[in-house]
Structures are given as structure tokens and as C-alpha cells.
């Protein structure tokens, strides 16, 4: 039975991950934390919750001293679109936040899981079936921090033996908490607007492929990797994982099969389009499949059915 501390626990992933982990490890063994007490009441009230700014190393240290977790799941970060509008904030939170977590983990003997992203790739990366080990020259501040973060996690493992692990998540689609300002957010907003207003204006251009994943598969990936046998891990940090790759018109036509009156038009946002154009179309996730049994359950059709069912209840 593991004890887990989660940072950034009130964001899109944390809101669902904390409840998922509490079901597995027990309420008191999963300590949620975020910079403020603003978000899911379930996460804040169903188990321990601490206010932790990841830029405050003392706070992290105190929480680790108090709860003695086996693993820190570090989710606190600034995402791609917000990062492009405030690059210095993205650098500070993403780099110093991770550095502080790794330092505390090193001194207290905890493992660390932290997600990287498809944003760790750039325009010179092979776009289709992007390999696990390939060129990484991202052109966003978010991407720069993600590559540096991958390297820093590798460094803490090889230099100090900290048990660091991580995946490169694609765009994540979910209905519990709204996304925090990424480039793939359209693939969440489109479902909300389809259910609420039957129309959506998409800021990403037709024909723009990106990798995506439904949240249940993402949660399963995190637990599978933190529970994986370390002897089998060759890559450890930054495993490519994906579940589907599609462009806006594909998600639109899947939704239309269930909501025939749904209409979509386009008003392309040049900043987010440029970010999307710099990312891969589809990832090769065979290393994750081989090393720890990664195997997603949801494709676009299954996800669309579930999202619309869940949002129809939620937005009633
Ligand atoms: P999010 O933006 O929804 O949540 C991030 C959380 O971090 C927020 O609750 C925010 O309050 C908190 N935070 C911000 N600054 C903080 C600070 N200084 N101290 C403590 N907390 C702070 O993000 P998310 O989607 O849940 O992403 C979590 C991780 O997964 C990030 O590392 C992100 O890069 C990665 N990721 C997410 C996606 C996705 O589609 N959601 C895709 C790839 C990678």
C-alpha cells in the first residue's frame, strides 16, 4: 500500500487522480495539495489536503516530513497557452517547482512521478509515429520546460538514485474539471458546447492532427507506471503514450452521430494554431507498451459516447 502526495491536485488531472488514488490506496494515504483551496470539494474534504506552493521548498519539506509519502506525484505546472502568454511564470513554476520536488525527494527518499507532454517535441521532430527517442527542439516556453524537466528527472535518477518516472501525455479529455489553458483544450470545450448550445467555434484549423487521450486511460497510466517493476524500465521518464490521434473535423463528426443538430465553424487562434503545428501528429508508444504494459481502452467513438452521456447529466 502506497502513501502519495499530489501537487497541483485541483487541476484537470489532479481532481480525478486524487479520487482514483484514494479508491486504491485509501483516503488517508493520498494527500492532495495545491497553491490555494479553490476547486473540487471532494478532493479538499474526502482526505488530507495541504496548501503547498511548489516554489516554497520549506512547505514541500514540511508536508513530506508530516506525512512521509512513498511517492510524490507532481502535477503543479503552467500549461502551454498560458505559458506562451506568461513565459517567465511558466519557467519559474515548471522548473523551480520540479527542482524543489526533486530536492525534497532526494533528501527524504521518496519516488517522484511527473508528467511531460507532447509539447516536449518541436517542428524538427518527425511528425508521424514520433519515436520515443528523437529530436526534441520545442519552440514554446512550456515545451522548453518539459524537455528540461525530463532531463532533470533522468539526472536525479542517475546521479542520486531518486526513483523518477513519467509519461509524455497527449491532450487529455475529461468532464470533471475544465482544462487549465493548453492547446488541446478545444477537444474538451467542443463536448461542453455540443451538449449545452449545439454549436461550437473551433480555434484550431481543420486538418490539424494531435494525439489525445480520455482521462480514465491517463489515470490508469499513472498508476500502472508508479506500480511498474523498476527492473523492466529502460526509459523511466517521459514515455510516449497515446490513445488516439484526430483533427477537429473528426471529433465533430463523431459528436454529430449522437447530436445530429450540432454545428461547428472555425475562428483560428494564430498563437494556439502555431503551437499545435509545432507538435507531432501521432506518437509511437511501443516503449510504454513493452516496458510496463501500456494499453489504452478508449478510442474516439467510445470516448465521445461517454463524454456526452456524462456531460448530459452534469450540465442538466
Ligand atoms: P492544470 O492547469 O489543470 O492544473 C495545474 C494545477 O497546478 C492547478 O490546480 C494550479 O492551481 C496548480 N498550480 C499552479 N501553480 C502552482 C504553484 N506554484 N504551486 C502549487 N500549485 C500550483 O494542469 P493539468 O492539466 O492537471 O496538468 C498537470 C500536469 O500534467 C502538468 O505537468 C501538465 O504539463 C501535464 N500535462 C497535462 C496535459 C493535459 O492535457 N491536461 C497534457 C500533457 C501534460
From TrEMBL:
<dbReference type="Pfam" id="PF01370">
    <property type="entry name" value="Epimerase"/>
</dbReference>
<protein>
    <submittedName>
        <fullName>L-threonine 3-dehydrogenase</fullName>
    </submittedName>
</protein>
<dbReference type="GO" id="GO:0008743">
    <property type="term" value="F:L-threonine 3-dehydrogenase activity"/>
</dbReference>
<dbReference type="InterPro" id="IPR001509">
    <property type="entry name" value="Epimerase_deHydtase"/>
</dbReference>
<dbReference type="GO" id="GO:0006567">
    <property type="term" value="P:L-threonine catabolic process"/>
</dbReference>
<dbReference type="InterPro" id="IPR036291">
    <property type="entry name" value="NAD(P)-bd_dom_sf"/>
</dbReference>
<dbReference type="InterPro" id="IPR051225">
    <property type="entry name" value="NAD(P)_epim/dehydratase"/>
</dbReference>
<feature type="domain" description="NAD-dependent epimerase/dehydratase">
    <location>
        <begin position="4"/>
        <end position="241"/>
    </location>
</feature>
<comment type="similarity">
    <text>Belongs to the NAD(P)-dependent epimerase/dehydratase family.</text>
</comment>
Amino acid at each position: 500500500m502506497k502513501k502519495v502526495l499530489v501537487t497541483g491536485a485541483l487541476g484537470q488531472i489532479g481532481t480525478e487522480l486524487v479520487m482514483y488514488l484514494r479508491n486504491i490506496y485509501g483516503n488517508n494515504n493520498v494527500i492532495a495539495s495545491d497553491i490555494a483551496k479553490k476547486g473540487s470539494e471532494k478532493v479538499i474534504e474526502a482526505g488530507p489536503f495541504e496548501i503547498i506552493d511548489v516554489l516554497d521548498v520549506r512547505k514541500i519539506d514540511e508536508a513530506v516530513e508530516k506525512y512521509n509519502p512513498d511517492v510524490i506525484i507532481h502535477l503543479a505546472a503552467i500549461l502551454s497557452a498560458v505559458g506562451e502568454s506568461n513565459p517567465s511564470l511558466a519557467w519559474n513554476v515548471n522548473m523551480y517547482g520540479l527542482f524543489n520536488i526533486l530536492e525534497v525527494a532526494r533528501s527524504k527518499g521518496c519516488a517522484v512521478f511527473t508528467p511531460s507532454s507532447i509539447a516536449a517535441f518541436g517542428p524538427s521532430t518527425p511528425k508521424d509515429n514520433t519515436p520515443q527517442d528523437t529530436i526534441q527542439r520545442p519552440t514554446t516556453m512550456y515545451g522548453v520546460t518539459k524537455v528540461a524537466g525530463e532531463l532533470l528527472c533522468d539526472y536525479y535518477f542517475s546521479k542520486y538514485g531518486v526513483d523518477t518516472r513519467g509519461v509524455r501525455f497527449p491532450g487529455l479529455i475529461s468532464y470533471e474539471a475544465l482544462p487549465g489553458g493548453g492547446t488541446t483544450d478545444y477537444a474538451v470545450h467542443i463536448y461542453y458546447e455540443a451538449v449545452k448550445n449545439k454549436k461550437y467555434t473551433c480555434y484550431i484549423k481543420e486538418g490539424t492532427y494531435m494525439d489525445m487521450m480520455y482521462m480514465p486511460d491517463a489515470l490508469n497510466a499513472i498508476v500502472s507506471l508508479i506500480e511498474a517493476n523498476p527492473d523492466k524500465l529502460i526509459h523511466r521518464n517521459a514515455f510516449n503514450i497515446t490513445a488516439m490521434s484526430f483533427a477537429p473535423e473528426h471529433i465533430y463528426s463523431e459528436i454529430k452521430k449522437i447530436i445530429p443538430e450540432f454545428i461547428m465553424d472555425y475562428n483560428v487562434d494564430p498563437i494556439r494554431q502555431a503551437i499545435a503545428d509545432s507538435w507531432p501528429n501521432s506518437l509511437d508508444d511501443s516503449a510504454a507498451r513493452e516496458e510496463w504494459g501500456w494499453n489504452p481502452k478508449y478510442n474516439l467513438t467510445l470516448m465521445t459516447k461517454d463524454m456526452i452521456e456524462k456531460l448530459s447529466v452534469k450540465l442538466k
